[in-house]
Amino acid sequence: MRASLIQLSVDAGESAGERRRRAAGLVRDRAGDDLVVLPELWAAGAWAYDGWDRDAERLDGPTAEAMSAAARDAGVWLHAGSIVERDADGTLYNTALLFDRTGHLAGHYRKIHRYGFDTGEATLMGGGGDIVTVPTELGVIGLAICYDLRFPELFRALLDAGAELVVVPAAWPAARLTHWRLLTRTRALEEQVHLLACCATGSHGGMDQGGHSAAIDPWGTVLAEAGRAEETVTADLDPDEVARIRTDLPVLRDRVLGDRVPGDRHSFKRSHAVREAPPT
């Protein structure tokens, strides 16, 4: 399986419409690949909060329309990064879009973990509530976005839902690049999945993006990695590697905490200590 990560430059000097047209052309250039991935919020800008309300769109909006056509023309599975989605009730979400080779929207995921603490995404967007996996001829694809990387329980839930490949679009800050490189390898290794992590480059909203998009195998080996500039990196993934590594190093069957998954040899009984109230 051939996968390409389009590490798109997202800068304030380019409009959402201009970037949309440019991204569509870059996707069409990947005809012959199996899976193509774009970064997080590349049309609106992940750090350009003041433009989100203006650039928000529905699931059938201009970005989805352009990416659907590009996927169909290239004949690829396209993870189109994420958009600022406006729900029917007006709530904004950071929503990832996955299109099949015909341009059909095969799956979408609303980001569960919102970054910003008391600012930005954490206050301006709603949080998703669904674990999303999509069965494909390439394997079961699990969906996550950027800040989600810091929460291993989500990736364990994707594993339990059958994920063999996890795609993570991002707009990770350059200042925390060491965290990005560590967490992407860790999530691939601990869940024994292929992980495709596509980060933006450039600067917008006062934030320099880290780049260094990477394709990582279930052993934690980086198969391909970008630098800081806009570029496309391509890697050949062996879908059979997931089952082979899980058989050769069957650490997942030794899980004892959390919910059991098929093949577990252990169960874990939760218990809670009860503290008696002090005498009055």
From TrEMBL:
Belongs to the carbon-nitrogen hydrolase superfamily. NIT1/NIT2 family. InterPro entries: C-N_Hydrolase, C-N_Hydrolase_sf, UPF0012_CS. This is Hydrolase. The keyword Hydrolase applies. GO terms for molecular function: hydrolase activity. The keyword Hydrolase applies. The lineage of its organism: Bacteria, Bacillati, Actinomycetota, Actinomycetes, Kitasatosporales. SUPFAM superfamilies: Carbon-nitrogen hydrolase. CDD domains: nitrilase_5 (cd07583). It comes from the Bacteria. Keywords: Hydrolase. Residues 1-239 form the CN hydrolase domain.
